[in-house]
Amino acid sequence: MTHGKGREFKKLPVVPPENLKDGHFQLYLFESERAYSFAQELYEQFTKSDDTKTRNIAMGRFRRAVKWSGQFLSESQALHAIQPPRISSINLAEAVAYHLAIRGRFLRLQDEFQPGLEALVAARTVLDALSKAAGSSRDYAIYVQFSDEIAPEIRHCAHELGLARAYDIDGIVATLGSKVASALVKDYEQLLQGIQSEGAERQGGDKAKQLQEIIWEGQPIPVRSPELVDVLLRVQQASEGLPTTGQANIKPTQTRGLVTKFDGVLMALSEAEDVAKKLADAQKTTSNPPSGPGARDAHFISSFVTYQLLSRRTQRDLLLTEALLTTPTPTPGKQGEASQTVDYRVAPAVVKLLDTVLQSLNQMRSLSVVDESADLTMAIEGRLAFFLSKTYEPHNKYAEAVALTQRANLHLREAHTNFADTTESTPETAFYPLTLDSVKTLEQEVQNTETDLKKRWFAYNGGKTARNQHQKPVFFDIALNYIELPMEKLQEKAGVAPKAQPAKTSPAVEKRVLAERKAEPEPEEPTSNAQTSQGMLGSLLGGWWGRK
């Protein structure tokens, strides 16, 4: 930077440590980051074009980044040396790790692999010490994320140096870490003791910032993204007070409050799912998976968060189902009828909820972290068919209802047979703890319902004969209008004697014979007068009147 007029460079006056403020450190950090990011862009252009000039400019920018980060570290050490120290040992260690990481990357790009490996290993050692002393889950995720970024560069330097176990990054850090850190970091032992003492004080801090350990199949899952830690902390806070299993004994008065809590958890999990998917897509584009034993990539974390979302949704739907089934009916049954334990309007709602549960289970099947559970799916399908049969009963469609109960029996029988190969319930399936006793109870309930439906079907006997709806005549009745059916002859051939029918006596009717009337010929009138009149008129009119 040039200050003053003209081209003459004027060096900045040295600021004493007592007058250093936050703005000075921010200026050093921003200058270092600007030079480092520009150097990375130039070096990427060099890898595509092979232009030596671009590489030289990139290396110059890297030197500036190393210079500014070194000045940032020296000022931090000056503040830490003041009594009492103005910055903590953890803050100084962060500045040390930042400077060593940039220096090691610069040396690696200059093909100086031995000093580059030492600087990167020292930075990784300091970051490991910081992660052990982290006071919150977010700080731990930040340290681990920086360690994951350094790990591939350590492997590259070790490979170029021809080390036998270049892939074992943790082994290299454990072997060379303390040695190179003591050589490159000023007062490393005192700094390490300060980190440990301050970390012990921060361990008992705010519990709201501590993310509980996530276990999957008996193994812990480290969350290595600060953004994901933030959303998972919201999920953890929203999940407080919720039942651990889907079949917990819950009072009907508590259902509304629990459903509200479940809605809050589902909202937080939806946000976590979006963040996890974005991280998975970013990792897919960079193709740089995290290293280290037990490290789970972003795709696994995304599948795990989706599984938690579906399990909580299933738990909420089952809670609503139990609340609907335990709700008492508002009106008692009539005399002579069996008392209804479930309102007929409840069955369609239960069917919709169980259908949503099946959709969630089918989505779980497609996840990479889930092994297919056939017994759980069959049990849900059996329960769905059972309640679907209850929707046909109010409409007197007993045939459909009995068919659905038989289908439910088949699903439950299949779930019953699959229990031979399963073990006890795991924490992953705690949202729906399926036991053999619950399947047997549901199977017995389905059988009792099927028997009751058959009895009602038999008593119904096709329904009422008198119906208001217009029915078309049977084809047999229509055929009698066009063909003759000799019932007497058919009965004789069958050996059935026809019943003797009494002769019908009809009243005598007096017949009257009317005398025939003969038409008398009418007398013909003389034509002489007509002819004379016609001749007289025709003579008067010119002779054309009366022509035929």
Automatic annotation (TrEMBL):
Listed GO biological process terms: SRP-dependent cotranslational protein targeting to membrane
Domain of life: Eukaryota
Pfam families reported for this sequence: SRP68 (PF16969)
The keyword Protease belongs to this UniProt entry's keyword annotation: no
Keywords annotated in UniProt: Cytoplasm, Nucleus, Ribonucleoprotein, RNA-binding, Signal recognition particle
One annotated Gene Ontology cellular component of this protein: nucleolus
Region described as Disordered: spans on this chain: 494-548
Basic and acidic residues compositional bias, start-end: 509-521
Signal peptide: none
InterPro entries (alphabetical): SRP68, SRP68_N_sf
Location of this chain's protein in the cell: Cytoplasm; Nucleus, Nucleolus
GO terms, molecular function: 7S RNA binding; endoplasmic reticulum signal peptide binding; signal recognition particle binding
Family under the similarity heading: Belongs to the SRP68 family.
Protein name from the UniProt record: Signal recognition particle subunit SRP68
Organism of derivation: Rhizoctonia solani
Species lineage: Eukaryota, Fungi, Dikarya, Basidiomycota, Agaricomycotina
